[in-house]
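I am writing to request your help with a piece of structural work I have in hand. Here, with my thanks, is the record as I have it:
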Amino acid sequence: NDSEFPSSMRKKPTPSKTPPTVGVRIPSWARHAHGLYEGILEYMQRHSTWRLEVEMDTDDEVPRPDIGKDWKGDGIITFRYTDEEAASWRRRGTAVVNVSSEKASTPLPSVFLDNLEAGRQVARFFVERGWDSFGYLHDPHRRYSTERLDGFREVLREHGHEVDVLEVDSSRMSSAERPEGVRDALRRQIGGWKHPVAVLAKDDISASALLRYLPEFGLSCPNDVAVIGVCNDRLLCLTSFPSLSSVRYPAHQIGYGAAGLLDRQLAGESIKPSQEVT
C-alpha cells in the first residue's frame, strides 16, 4: 500500500540530466570540518544539485570513496593536496577547490581564512588594551602559522613593539613524542619571555597546550601570560582553564564559498589558480 508515502514519491520518474559527481575530502581531525560541510551543503540546497561523495568514517558500513589522484568524478573540494594529485586532476580536467592554507607548491583555486588579518586583529586587540610585551607560539613548518605571525608582527611594529617568537615544531614530531615534545619546548623557552606577556598562539590547540602547562612553569593566565588562539574551537576553548579566547574561523562561510567557486568551474568558467581568502 503506497498511501503511506508522499505523493511525490508515487509519481513516475522523469528523465533528468545526470548531476555532476563531486568528492569532498576533509579529514575528521580538522577541527572545523563540520562547519565546512554545513557551508557546502547549504550552497547545494540553494544553488545546485550534485551527487556528493564524502570521505567520512562510517565504521565500514558504507564504502569509503578514494578521493585522490585517480578520482574519476567531476569536481573535488579538498582540505590540502599534493603536487602529484594536482597534476593528475589537471590532466583529467577535474574541477578542484582547496580549503586549507596548507597547500602544495602547485597553485589551485582556494578559499580559506585570511591568516594575515587574523594576526593583525589580535595585535590590535592587545595594543589597545595597553600591553607592551608580546609573544607568538609558532610552528615554522606551517604556512598558516607563518602568515598569522606576519600579520601579528606587522601591527606590533607599527606601534613600536617587537614580538618574541617561541618555536614549537610540533608538526615534525611523531604522535608518540608530541605531548612531551611540546611540553619540553615550552619549558625551555617560555622563561625567556618578559612577563607579563600577551601571546598569540598559532591555533587553539597550541593555545590550549600552553594554558595547560603554565601552572607547571609557575605562571598563570592572565596575570603572567595572556593567551589568544585562532579558530574559536568551542570544545577546546571551553575545556581550557581559564577559558580560551580565540579568533573566529568562518568555516561555514569558507565551505559555502568553496562550493560556489567549484560550481563556477563545473559550469565552464575558467578560474585562475590563485588564493581567495575570507
